[in-house]
Amino acid sequence: MLTQNLGYPRIGGHRELKKASEQYWAGKIDLNQLKEVAARIREDNWKTQLDAGIDLIPCNDFSFYDQTLDASVLLGAIPGRYSPVLAAGGTDSETDLYFAMARGYQKNGLDITAMEMTKWLDTNYHYIVPEFTAGQEFNISNENIFNEYKSAKSILGKKAKPVLIGPVSYLLLGKEKEQGFERIDLIKKLVPVYIEIIGRLKELGAEWIQLDEPCLALDLSKKEKEAFELAYRAIAANAGGIKVLVATYFEALLDNTQLAVNLPVAALHIDLVRAPEQLDEVLALIPPDLQLSIGVVDGRNVWKNDYEKALGLINQSIHKLGTDRVIIAPSCSLLHSPIDLELETALDPEVRSWMAFAKQKLNEVAELKQVAEGNDVLLQANKKAIESRHSSQRVHKQSVKGRVAAITEADGQRKSAFAVRQQLHRERFELPLFPTTTIGSFPQTDDIRELRAKLKKGELTVEQYDAAIEQATVEAIRWQEDLGLDVLVHGEFERNDMVEYFGEQLDGFLFTKNGWVQSYGSRCVKPPVIYGDISRPKNMTVRWTRFAASQTNKPMKGMLTGPVTILQWSFVRDDQPRDITANQIALAIRDEVVALERAGIGIIQIDEAAIREGLPLRKANRSFYLGWAVNAFRITASGVEDRTQIHTHMCYSEFNDIIEHIAAMDADVITIETSRSQMELLQAFAHFEYPNEIGPGVYDIHSPRVPGIDEMASLLAKAADLLPAQHLWVNPDCGLKTRKWPETKAALENMVAAARQARTKTSLGG
Predict the structure, then answer these.
(1) What is the pLDDT of residue 766?
(2) What secondary structure does DSSP assign to 201-245, as a single string?
């Protein structure tokens, strides 16, 4: 019986890759120094997995930005607008091209937009969306996958297993960039390049290759299913003896089970953490020559594996297949887990004993093999840890459970319909057409982060820290006033993270020191851990919002994070349904909304950036999720009077198939990401005739480039063609925390100018 891993975190135990990447982008280190950091991380990762006793160890799972972007570069799927970057020359031109595709390019007289970015299925990891044209050609365009395999082989020998996104999922996760064709039809052009890649890896000595096909767990059309059959028949006919492992995850195969088990490959991986119920059907249909990799260790959460539960799935598989056809694995890539629990020396010992990070999950995979072979000592020790968590008095609070049980339909209803509220808001705030605002945060400079660090170390008193934050807040308010923004924000200088900040003030959460996971590129987040029932012991944001409001005569937004986003961006309990946890958070945030209103705050934004992210991958499962997710938001927003305006924000999401549920949230104003898609995402709101107000982002904050006035004005004009001008707001795509002040100021100055231009054009009847 083999063990394997599907992927490993690539940021480094102390975020070495993040720091090196940002230094490289800033010109503080050269490309060789960046590559040296990457090489050390890869080598450490391989040795960690080797030491854990894993039999098949992934390589090519490392990336400087995103594995889907890596695939696009490998396969030559490089949009034509980036050709000038290579033409500009220079020793680092290929790397410039790579980062230009991810982040945009604005130097050497060039101004090129970044490729679209969106969420990786239902995770908070983002990927760069491949772009395809009708005449798309593919070819091997760089040597990274081969060079990395050679490096891995020198350390791992035959255990090195190259990983690449599979050809069908690569196409399905991309987008057509012109009319008249379907991207899935490109499969016949794409597969020969995969065959060439696999052949070269075989020549280098590879015995296995992992092709990730997460789309096998989605709803597929007849043509898409045929593409899988075509692709893998061709690969099997030309693979030259290399063993192909197709990996699926995050959902059950369901109606794709017959298709998946009959692909002509050596092994199939299935996710038995997310969907253990699929094992029965897979085992009933599996052909006699297919190995089965069973994902029984949760690759997306931090809780210790229940060996007894996993052993039941392992034994069921062995009973049907025998030990030589079963591979024990995590459910998915460990990219979504923090790296090493051993770094968490300050965690509460009891709760720490319930947890496992990526490094520990490797040990769990190896130990499960031993347990399956009869090691009862390991099994009994694990049982003791699992029982400790289940029986802990720290997890359960009857007062919280009782409040959730008492929720009624009325708790999710505003007092009046939107049209009534809208008129009250217009009278109260007297905002111009195309009102301007930002999404909440302003740049977290080194000075601001240093203040927070000094406070934690005791080098600043609370009074000194507060005075410094007040000064930064006042400066931000004065700058916004001078700029001419219509609705201001306080900048969130006192906040570390939009979820962590709230979790630190809510009961039922705990926090790690080094539990970082990658969100995109160099952006890392440190998700809170929800271990128990959640309640709000005191006000969380009132002090700073009230202070900011007292410094200006303009409207000041109160800024909160919504219950579904807090849920999605935390490591959540796995011992109760997610909707119950969401309602616990919703009630806590509702209390804060009411407290802000009582403090005189008239506009309150409740960010639900992740509501689309939590959507089940299968359409048949979505209704239940959308019901409780939308209602959780409504619970937070419905405790206020009609004259209080409720905003929400959502980023990097496709809304077409859930637009009626977005409308059902009944936020007075919604702001969304639209700039990278050139307002493409706004089509859903136009076709649906979205009834409330909307702020389509005109400034891509995930790129360092500064869009010009005309560019933003053009985007606003597109928006005004689709939606009533009196319903439109003007804002960036997202918060500005990760940007630098010079680019932020320049971009927002252009944004305000574009809004004024739009007002003039509209008043003249243009």
Answers:
(1) 53
(2) HHHTT--EEEEE-GGGGS---HHHHHHHHHHHHHHHHHSTTPEEE
Secondary structure, 3-state, 349-410: HHHHCCECCHHHHHHHHHHHHHHHCCCHHHHHHHHHHHHHHHHCCCCCCHHHHHHHHCCCHH
Cβ pair 535, 400 in contact under 8 A: yes
User: What size, in residues, is the chain?
Assistant: 766
Instruction: Kindly report the backbone phi and psi dihedral angles of residue 165, in degrees, each rounded to the nearest multiple of 5, phi listed first.
Output: -65, 135
Question: Is 447 known as a binding-site position?
Answer: no
Q: Phi/psi zone of residue 483: left (φ > 0), alpha (ψ -120 to 50 degrees), beta?
A: alpha
Long-range contacts (CB closer than 8 Å, 24 or more residues apart) made by 308-311: 308/379, 308/382, 308/383, 308/386, 310/368, 311/368, 311/371, 311/372, 311/379
Element (H, E) at 297: strand 291-297
Tell me how far apart the alpha carbons of residues 730 and 29 are, in angstroms, rounded to a whole number. Answer: 37
Output the CA torsion 677→20→568→220 (10° steps): 50
301-307-313 Cα angle (round to 5): 95
Q: Which letter does DSSP use for residue 306 in this model?
A: -
702 part of the active site: yes
Residue of 423, 433, 434 whose CA lies nearest to 643 = 423
Measured CA to CA in angstroms, residue 279 lies from 212, 296, 460 at distances of 19, 11, 56
What are the residue ranges in the chain where pLDDT is below 70?
89-91, 652-654, 764-766
- Residue 364 and residue 304: Cα distance in Å, rounded? 8
Classified as helix, coil or strand, 529 is strand
The radius of gyration of the chain's CA atoms, rounded to the nearest angstrom, is 26
Query: pLDDT digits over 705-719, tens only?
Result: 899 999 999 989 988
Does 524 appear as a known binding residue?
Answer: yes
Q: One of 490, 647, 661, 702 is an active-site residue; which one?
A: 702
Report whether 224 belongs to an annotated binding site. Answer: no
Paired residues of 326 in beta bridges: 292
Task: Identify which of 165, 130, 174, 125 has the alpha carbon closest to the alpha carbon of residue 145.
Answer: 165
Tokens describing residue 139: 């070819």
Is 642 strand, coil or helix? coil
Summarised one tens digit per residue, pLDDT across range 77-120 is: 999 999 999 887 666 788 999 999 999 998 888 999 999 998 89
172 backbone dihedrals φ, ψ, rounded to 5° = -65, -30
Q: What is the pLDDT of residue 701?
A: 83
Q: Residue holding tokens 């395809």?
A: 132
Q: Tell me if 649 is assigned to a ligand binding site.
A: yes
Residue 320's identity, in one-letter code, is K
* Secondary structure of 646-663 as H, E, C letters: EEEEECCCCCHHHHHHHH
CATH of 417-763, one of 1.10.8.60, 3.40.630.30, 3.30.565.10, 3.20.20.210: 3.20.20.210
Distances 18 to 23, 200, 441, 570 between C-alpha atoms, Å? 9, 31, 21, 21
Domain 2-77+114-391 adopts which CATH fold? TIM Barrel (3.20.20)
pLDDT at 702: 79
What are the C-alpha distances in Å from 270 to residues 235, 261, 297, 646? 21, 10, 12, 42
Q: How many CA atoms lie within 13 A of 159 on its CB side?
A: 19
Q: Encoding tokens for residue 411?
A: 């708790």
Q: Tell how far CA 724 is from the center of its chain.
A: 31
- Which pLDDT score is estimated for 682? 77
Q: Binding residue per annotation — 332? A: no
Tell me if 613 is assigned to a ligand binding site. yes
Tell me the domain boundaries of the chain.
Answer: 2-77+114-391, 417-763
| Residues 299 and 4 sit within 8 Å (Cβ to Cβ) | no
> What are 696's strand-pairing partners?
672
**CATH topology agreement for domains 2-77+114-391 and 417-763:** yes
Residue 439 counted as an annotated binding residue: yes
Taking Cα atoms as reference points, which of 684, 660, 664 lies closest to residue 672?
684
